[in-house]
Amino acid sequence: MAWYSPLVHALTQSLPSIVEFIVIVIVGVIVAYGVAAVLRRALSLKYFEQYPEVKGLLGLSVGAVKAFIILVTLAIAFSILQLGPATLYMKEIANYLPSLASAIILLTLGVALVNILVDYIQRQVGGASSPFMASVFNILKFGLYAVIIKIAVQLSIFYLDTLHQPPTSSMTS
Questions:
Q1: What is d(CA 65, CA 42) in angstroms, rounded to the nearest whole number?
Q2: What is the distance between the alpha carbons of residues 37 and 171, in angstroms, rounded to a whole number?
Q3: Integer Cα distance of 110 and 103 in angstroms
């Protein structure tokens, strides 16, 4: 009978934080869907219907905001979760989630904006008629993709670099 007592003790100690975790996640998801519905309604203006690519970007932006709210909710919920020895790892995951969320949002919106920008410039210049100009615009598009990817990777990895650096202390004499 005594073989399960440490397990039962650990479970009873973790149960309140598990319930808090579940409640926070449920409330956060409800808030995220509510904010997304309000944004979708607010951004469905008549002005945007004449620009289909911008209307698609608005839908993508609403989805990105919803994903960001859910990831922040998960970060808060993981920071509250107390699972004994695994608590330290849960807090590290919770601290990393906002960096990851912003990198994902940057990639999603950045790629969509690059597509809109290059297509707009191509229509203004009339570059679709010449194979040379089409290849120039493809190179421009891939170059801008590379810049967006580089920024997103630095944004998501920057947190890891600062995490493992020793703290700097300034002592005055």
A1: 14
A2: 51
A3: 10
Identity of the amino acid at 132: F
Residue identified by tokens 């449920």 is 26
The values of phi and psi at residue 146, to 5°, are -60, -40
Q: How many whole angstroms separate alpha carbon 64 and alpha carbon 111?
A: 13
DSSP annotation of 11 reads H
Joined tokens for residue 5: 């007592």
Structure tokens at 84: 């004994």
Per-10-residue mean pLDDT for the chain, 173 residues long? 66 81 94 91 68 69 84 84 73 76 82 85 78 85 90 74 54 49
Q: Residue 71 in contact with residue 101, Cβ under 8 Å?
A: yes
Question: Would you say the C-alpha torsion 136, 141, 145, 148 has a positive or negative sign?
Answer: positive
